[in-house]
């Protein structure tokens, strides 16, 4: 009588995300060592990212210039207007696009930082005059009493605009509700030359968090209280040394935290600023510590002015993109790893040159000559690949040191109508020696119907049927790594579970969360 196969079950394979830091160790199949175009489903399982599409009826701009900046402007009437920059021009709208460059001094770049202030949209970028737009109008240069010197960043907070001048040392704040008044009324200046604790530094960007003015230097972070009345109450609260921000547009206030790109990775500020206003100089949390060296290959080689980020609150993820390298890092903050980091995946093919999320949680991506919307499961009508390979595992005790013969795999997949699935595996830390087997998710009737029960398919959801796909396996080894690759072409897909079956013996079960 044939001996029964012993199952080895993994719930949520790959769901912890990418871990390049411990790639040489047996870290288990919930981690991935390589991935492409993955994200997390609402259930916390590994899934394909969404795609992008253009807006109906919109044509590419002549010359197809990259969209470099996107901003949601909320006007005096509380109307949302999407403002964006491309080809040294300024535009408004998505389905219906208008040129709103107006009378501004001719731009030579599109590295604008836009802010909303008192019903207006204000923009700054290095080497350019600050600009302003009101609802229904075009942009114009701001007419100051005394203009800030070459501002590189701006913040709207406490009824004022705070401008960072081009020397990276001076902050000028406006009079109340007067973005153009910098020398009279209650306007004023902060000089950082005498504030930096570790010699010289330079300001990269500003933020407001928990009622503090946060000044991001390249090597340190400075916190001030009293922004409500800076002329009489502004007070230095803390200086956080040994970390800083390297890209202005990586800074994202996500409500209960601020995330930004440092040399070490994606840093969380919340551990330093506790709820209730206490400030404590604790080590900053590097949410990308598991991929820090890998991410540094791109973050330290990308021109800082090209780096863009956004935060999508409904789905709980932060994106940061490096356009030159054509890679985007996805950090899911809703589900943390066992070591309290973000679950991270890498996106390719989508290649945004700008990112923004509006108050309806629509995610806009910059593309050559027009805006795109993160939506659906095609990249502007084209398919794209999803792929991942897990961490290595061998088992525990005597089983872990034994050679195991795997005979079959059953992969439980949600969605993926008609997708062709490639299952691959390798043994004993030889990831270049993959074996693979192909199978397909069959859809024999409309997936909205009940009673799908053909071989290999077991339906549990009316909208996204759950299928168990079988693959033959071969070979043997003490340790195993496995992965899935498939083409995403219009259908949502996530991996729920993997059951591997080995010949004889027993193996410790993993993956129960």
Structure report:
The chain is mostly beta strands. Helices cover 3% and strands 42% of the residues. The chain contains 3 helices and 41 strands. Strands 1, 4, 5, 35, 38, 39 and 41 form a 7-stranded antiparallel β-sheet that branches. Strands 2-3-34-40-36-37 form a 6-stranded mixed β-sheet, with no helix packed on it. β24 and β25 form a beta hairpin. It is elongated and about 90 Å long. The protein starts with a strand and ends in a 10-residue tail after the last strand. The C terminus is likely disordered.
Descriptors for this entry?
513 residues, seven-stranded antiparallel beta sheet, single chain, mainly beta
Could you outline the blueprint of secondary structure elements for this entry?
Layout: E1 5-11, E2 17-18, E3 31-36, E4 38-40, E5 46-48, E6 52-54, E7 67-74, E8 80-86, E9 89-92, E10 98-99, E11 113-117, E12 120-124, E13 131-134, E14 140-141, E15 153-157, E16 160-164, E17 170-173, E18 188-191, E19 203-209, E20 212-217, E21 221-225, H1 230-233, E22 235-240, E23 252-253, E24 258-262, E25 265-268, E26 285-286, H2 292-299, E27 308-312, E28 317-322, E29 327-336, E30 342-347, E31 355-357, E32 363-367, E33 370-374, E34 384-390, H3 397-401, E35 404-415, E36 420-427, E37 435-440, E38 466-472, E39 476-477, E40 480-488, E41 493-503
Beta content: 35-45%
Helices and strands: which structural class? mainly beta
E-strand count: 41
Query: In whole angstroms, how far apart are the ends?
Result: 36 Å
The helix tally amounts to: 3
Global mean pLDDT? 90
- What composes the largest sheet? 7 strands, antiparallel
Low-confidence stretches: 444-462, 508-513
Radius of gyration from CA coordinates = 26 Å
Shape: elongated
**Helical amount:** under 10%
């Amino acid at each position: 009588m044939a001996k029964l196969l012993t199952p080895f079950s993994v719930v949520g394979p790959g769901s912890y995300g990418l871990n390049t830091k411990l790639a040489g160790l047996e870290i288990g199949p919930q981690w991935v060592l390589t991935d492409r175009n993955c994200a997390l489903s609402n259930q916390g399982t590994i899934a394909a990212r969404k795609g992008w599409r253009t807006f109906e009826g919109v044509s590419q701009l002549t010359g197809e210039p990259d969209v470099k900046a996107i901003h949601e402007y909320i006007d005096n009437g509380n109307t949302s207007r999407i403002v964006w920059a491309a080809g040294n021009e300024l535009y408004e709208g998505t389905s219906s696009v208008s040129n709103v460059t107006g009378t501004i001094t001719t731009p030579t770049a599109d590295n604008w930082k836009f802010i909303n202030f008192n019903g207006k949209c204000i923009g700054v970028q290095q080497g350019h005059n600050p600009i302003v737009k009101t609802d229904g109008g075009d942009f114009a240069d701001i007419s100051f009493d005394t203009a800030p010197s070459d501002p590189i960043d701006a913040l709207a907070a406490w009824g004022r605009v705070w401008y960072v001048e081009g020397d990276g040392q001076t902050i000028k704040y406006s009079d109340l509700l007067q973005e153009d008044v910098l020398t009279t009324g209650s306007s004023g200046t902060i000089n950082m030359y005498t504030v930096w604790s570790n010699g010289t530094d330079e300001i990269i960007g500003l933020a407001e968090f928990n009622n503090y003015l946060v000044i991001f230097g390249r090597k340190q972070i400075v916190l001030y209280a009293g922004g409500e009345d800076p002329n009489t109450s502004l007070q230095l609260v803390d200086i956080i040394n040994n970390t800083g921000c390297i890209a202005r547009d990586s800074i994202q206030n996500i409500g209960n935290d601020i995330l930004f790109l440092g040399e070490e990775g994606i840093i969380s500020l919340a551990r330093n600023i506790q709820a209730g206003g206490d400030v404590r100089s604790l080590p900053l949390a590097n949410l990308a510590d598991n991929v820090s060296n890998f991410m540094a290959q791109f973050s330290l080689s990308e021109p800082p002015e090209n780096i863009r980020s956004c935060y999508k609150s409904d789905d709980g993820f932060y994106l940061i993109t490096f356009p030159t390298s054509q890679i985007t890092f996805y950090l899911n903050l809703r589900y943390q790893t066992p070591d309290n980091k973000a679950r991270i995946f890498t996106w390719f093919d989508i290649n945004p040159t700008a990112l923004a999320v509006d108050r309806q949680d629509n995610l806009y991506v910059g593309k050559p000559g027009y805006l795109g919307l993160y939506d659906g499961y095609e990249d502007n009508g084209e398919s794209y690949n999803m792929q991942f390979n897990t961490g290595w595992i061998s088992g525990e005790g005597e089983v872990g040191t034994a050679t195991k013969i795997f005979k079959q795999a059953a992969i439980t997949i949600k969605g993926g109508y008609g997708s062709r699935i490639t299952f691959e595996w390798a043994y004993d830390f030889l990831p270049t020696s993959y074996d693979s087997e192909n199978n397909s998710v069959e859809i024999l009737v409309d997936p909205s119907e009940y009673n799908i029960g053909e071989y290999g398919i077991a339906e549990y959801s009316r909208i996204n049927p759950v299928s168990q796909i079988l693959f033959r396996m071969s070979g043997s080894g003490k340790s195993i790594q496995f992965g899935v690759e498939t083409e995403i072409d219009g259908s949502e897909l996530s991996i729920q579970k993997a059951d591997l079956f080995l010949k004889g013996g027993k193996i410790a079960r993993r993956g129960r969360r």
